[in-house]
Amino acid sequence: METACFEISGFDAVYDEYFDMVYRICFVYFHGHTADAEDAAQTVFMRYLEADNAPAVGEHTKAWLIVTAQNVCKTMLRRHHRKDKELDSAAEKGADFEYREVMDAVMRLPENERMAVYLNLYEGYTAAETAKLMGCRENTVYSYIHRARKKLKKELGG
According to the model, what pLDDT value does residue 9 have? Predict the structure, then answer.
């Protein structure tokens, strides 16, 4: 019985440390739809709880959760054929206008550019780490970020 308690408390530590990050990734994928992002984030943690090969707390856990979040979101999007919509009011709570405007513009970027910008600029991953997480080359990440910055600069007026 003690091992079950240990596993749950280990899970609680992972959940507490990484839920916000996983939710933000899902939020980016679902263009600000909070209900879909919450469903996806919960699915990611259910997979973590049920996985035989899920890593313990640490950097590998973070990477595992990011990749799993991306895969869950892509699967959900394929299944439901979602359409882009505006950010809902829940995403706007407590945020100033400038932040909402920038996040809204980021949400309209193509998926690869959006994820490269998010992982690199918001989560602090290097281009090499972002490339590993996205399953592409480092130079491709630089291209995604460069294109995204040009689009954001044009849309947001410098």
Answer: 60
Q: Is 7 helix (H, G, I), strand (E, B) or coil?
A: helix
Alpha helices (H) along the chain = 2-29, 34-50, 59-80, 89-92, 97-107, 111-117, 127-134, 138-156
CATH of domain 94-158: 1.10.10.10
Q: In the chain, where are the structural domains located? A: 1-85, 94-158
Report the distance separating Cα 138 and Cα 115, nearest Å: 14
Coil, helix or strand at residue 112? helix
Strands (DSSP E) contained in the chain are none
Q: Please state the separation of Cα 80 from the chain's center in Å.
A: 18
Instruction: Give the Cα separation of 115 and 134 in Å (integer).
Output: 8
Q: Which CATH class is domain 1-85?
A: mainly alpha
Tokens 């600000």, located at residue: 32
How far is it between the farthest Cα atoms of the chain?
Answer: 60
| Per-residue pLDDT reduced to its tens digit, 11-69 | 788 888 889 999 999 998 888 788 888 889 998 988 888 877 777 766 688 889 999 99
* CA–CA separation, 142 and 93 (whole Å): 32
